[in-house]
Structure of TraB family protein:
Amino acid sequence: FMLIFSMFGKEKISEEEIERLKSEDVLTVALSELARSFPRLKNTLIDERDQYLAEKIKLAPGNKVIAIVGAGHVPGIKKEIDKEHDLTALTKIPPASSYLKVLVWGIPLAIVAIIASTFTYSPPCRF
């Protein structure tokens, strides 16, 4: 997370810090924290992607396959490579939730309501 926060700050990150962040232990801790805090997000962003990548690697033509993947996906791909996965189910986009629809319409409506109430209930401005 330090790497993400550093994008917004003026601090420089040394090569040693970058290598430390790339180490498997740091990735494992970060993924464990993500799984604990946001299990559904981890399932969608990491687990389903690992399943998809594992299946695509198995389906790749040739006797030898070189797959370049992010370090965070390697343990999951190793776990999923011997299992069968339905690519159709993994690539299907689920319908948007009703909460998302409420947000999409609710935020602009709230802004319009605030502006309208400002003109309606505030005393007239004089210049």
Observations:
- The chain has one domain: 2-121.
- The two ends are 50 Å apart (CA to CA).
- Residues 2-121 form one domain.
- Helices lie at 2-6, 15-22, 24-37, 39-59, 74-80, 87-91, 98-121.
